[in-house]
Amino acid sequence: MTNKLPRLIYTAAFLIAAAAPNAWAGGVGLAPHQAVYEISLERASTASGITEMSGRMVYEIVGGNCGGYTQKMRFVTRVTDRNGNSVLNDLRTSSWEAPAGEKLRFNLSQYRGRELTESTEGMADREQGDAGVEVELSKPATRALQLEGKVYFPIQHSMALLQAAQEGRRQFPARLYDGSEQGETVYETNSFIGQPLPSETALTGVPEKIRGSAGLDGLYAWPVAISYYEPEARGTDAPPSYELAFRFHENGISSNLLIDYGDFAIRGKLTDLKMLEAEVCKPGK
Asked: How much is the pLDDT for 112?
């Protein structure tokens, strides 16, 4: 069975909202919500060793431009190999990001069955003038890292991606740090943005009970594809480590999720959506 596990700390963090529906020039904010995605196996090659996969991802974001954004996600899959053996993978993540992207706290736990196989925890601080990022890891071991140059945190990157879509840009390259890969990896990413889709087209495949909700009704969406490269692939012709494609709705909720790892791909179908209470900024904030 393949050793690849879904690297989804950022996958959930692309969920972004505009300040108001149909007001693309009004700036970018985040819509607090909880979304549920049913996971299924889209395809798998013989080399992957996978014959079946099913699961669920639950994602939640709260907060806002005053106190920052808190994200939580749980991603559970059951994978079956050619011999009929199955294993339960359980990824749990949480993070907090300051509203201006100056700080990021992150925590990740990966379980295989009931056994904890990986745990990552740390804090990243952006240096003044965006010169770099200092990372202090407490798990899996105490360690300090220095990330040079322009680096985006997940929420910061999602805001910039949505802004690029609103401005009609078709490509958005960026270096991304989300605390994944034991907190040691900065991904080189390249995002491709399609033409905006009207509401009726954007909701294709979305269940009827969600179509009429305040979270999606009447909103445009952009088809987006993001390629993730390992740092050493920069300047080479190496293929991406994985690719993420989704519909990026005008208020940031994502649907029609596809994650492609090369020898297998998984589909995430939005099945439930709950809009949460928005943050109210206190005077002076």
From this structure: 94
